[in-house]
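re: that complex we talked abt at group meeting.

here r the seqs, copy pasted straight from the sheet so there may be weird spacing, ignore it
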Amino acid sequence: MENYIIEMLNITKEFPGIKANDNITLNLKKGEVHALLGENGAGKSTLMSVLFGLYQPEKGEIRKNGEVVKVNNPNDANALGIGMVHQHFKLVEIFTVLENIILGVEPNKMGFLQKQEAREKVVELSERYGLKINPDAVIEDISVGMQQRVEILKMLYRDNEILIFDEPTAVLTPQEITELLKIMREFANEGKSILFITHKLNEIMEAADRCTVLRKGKYIGTVNVKESNKEELSKMMVGRDVNFKVDKEDAKPKDVVLSVKNMTVPSKHHKNNAVKNVSLDVRAGEIVCLAGIEGNGQSEFVYALTGLEKMIGGSITLSGKDITNASVRERSVAGLSHIPEDRHKHGLVLEYSLEQNMVLQRYWQPEFQKNGFIKFDAVREYSEKLIDQYDVRSGQGPITTVRSMSGGNQQKAIISREIDKDHDLLIAVQPTRGLDVGAIEYIHKQLVARRDAGKGVLLVSLELDEVMNVSDRILVMYEGEIVGELDPKKSTVQELGLYMSGAKRNTKKEIDNAG
Amino acid sequence: MQDKKRVSQKNKYSIKNITKGSGFSAFSSALLAIALGLIFGFVIMLFANPGSAFKGFNYILTGGLSRFGNVLYFATPILMTGLAVGFAFRMGLFNIGASGQYTMGMFFALYVGFMWDLPTGIHWIVAILAGMLGGMIWGFIPGIFKALLNVNEVITSIMFNYIGMYFVDMWIRSNSTMYISTMSRTNYVPLSAQIPSLGVEGSNVNFGIIFAVILGIVLYIVLEKTTFGYELKATGFNKHAADYAGMKGKRNIVLTMIIAGGLAGLGGAFLILSPSGIAGSSMTYEPVNIIAANGFNGIAVALLGNSHPIGIIFSSFFISHIQRGGSLANLVGYKPEIIDVVIAVIIYFSAFAMIMNAALGRFIRKYITHKEVEVPVIEPDASEEIKKEAE
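got the structure back, here u go
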């Protein structure tokens, strides 16, 4: 009998028609970092929600220190010393850091808040673990990295000893990731136990002691990370061998497809401009990646480029045609395809069927309508063709409501639609966000195929692996400006990170010379 | 691919598939709303006057049958305002201004009816079209405010309910051809401007209801079969995706409000240009500074009909039916207000019946089809894969 602090034994959690967790066992040792690995929909979040008291399992039991416990709600979890940093932070935006940390466990005397007492404890904790925060800053003003530190301090403030991190690195820079992994190790050395949900294998190799792999709701196995390797883990996760390297030949750039000159876009959130005087070119037959940490103007740049937002300065030329003042539809017709950042917000009408979404950009063309009446047969035929060609899987084929489809297949639907449409330039904004390894591999292949077909590809990505592996040229955006141009073959991730965090930048002249 | 198609064909008419369809869910939720509303209404009647509750309730349920012509007649305006609200709602606009548009339509129709001298056979048609135009103008204004200045259409259209009503009352009172001040109502509309009667004895029912039903069907076709309907619904479901696809959102907002206004305006025209049961007379309007209730009833009709044009046709018939029946309930001592309470309760239930309905659908699938339950609800990724493997 080993010294397990938490045992989740034979957990089965069913949702109508599906076993999200099927007889899963997970043992957490005291003082270890335990990674939970799996594709989207593998049941990781469900399992953690069971542990955190958000769901009740149909079968199985949870033990703490060998004793069976009932976790009926997050308050029970907290009482057992279980804390969780959610993927999407649960913070009150307009409260200060301190107020957020003490929320729910406010120290008080006869109902009067004792902030000083709380402040001392928070400051002490933040110094002990090197979690730099300003207790009086308001959440909406601070960076995502600091918000995450607030979430971690919330757990520490509550004296939690079992800490669950749900995909904590997705929003961080390489430097911040290193820092976080170090802090997690430190917690483990102090005797706290860490559960770390992720699908990034590098991080597991770096920080975790053991790793449990789930696939399609089933338990696949638990391995000691030291005795394993990336290839083995990914095979366990996906069920087949995965090719991490993107196979591609050197780019053969031809004529300039897209030329942006001095673009300036105002921000909706603050008085400064979100995009400041940005110029860039994309040539046919190359993948240019716009890298950067979220919120440095990439989204606004793309919105202005596609016509969804107005720019206040500069010009855009697509295939020799000035589209600075063109409408969204005119740009689309001129040869611009756009895989949007947020597939639910922009890319799809979730209530519509798959076939209706497949013609979202083209329903008005003579191929699909006559005198304003939609040609349903043509729509059906076309969408069946795309579904076949791009292997878009769904419950009922063309008539499936898109909302019921998996994220990966929703994204495939968008990609097939945008690729099949006539285009010279493909803009792909975070095309693999939230997708599993298999889908990522597929999408990367498609991007490279577009490039090889002689199209220009502008990839906007936050994922460093994607930036390094897929692109032919990297432009780094920081605070609305392009601060560096890198050749992925000659640069390292660390160097990229320095540019992304604003620690290093080329002068404008250097960039101009390089470009 | 082929396999998938065959499977979906085979199961097309199974209970599982019917209960999953959106048509079923709209229909069953409306029925559930009605059933709950009626039960609750009955309880209210029991409290109000226990002795005659059964008799009164019987009137509500069946009273309309004996006056079927009038049920159709009173259904006409609320069918039109219901369409006006429901159509805009599909675009994501809450057209609470149906009352004002309705009133405007009524005035325009009256004006043409009284002041223009046109040949019989054409006069009433022109008057109806004038009513439509009046409604369109009153829909256009909130629409253009929304499109250009992003002013919330709820606020503008509420204000325009008042503005329209006061204008109309002022214009009518100051027009001696239209207004009989001693009776504080409008004059009878000239015969040539009256919509031809359908000739059902003892009722006012006329061709208006036929036009209204046809318009409902036309709207259904517009929404389901045309690119305009495709854009409109896409905008209603997800405005951002509509922008992304290059749809002209502003133009569509204005167009939708014009159409909605026109529908409500037609409702006003249909009502006011109706011949009444007594030969030579017609419906009249009393300018008493009250906002037309038929506009607000349209919201109820649209809600119960789930904003679906065909659903709205039936829900307007139903509401008109219980309103007529309710007016008979005072024969056994019930106040007319009680029927308003019952209708209000039905509407109230229809709002949350939508939620209960999902549970009902699941229940039926579970117990009638022997646990053949719906597949992906959460984490569809995994379930799909599992299904694939099972195949």
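couple things i noticed - Confidence is low (pLDDT under 50) at residues 1-13, 369-391 of chain B. Strands of chain B lie at 179-180, 185-186.
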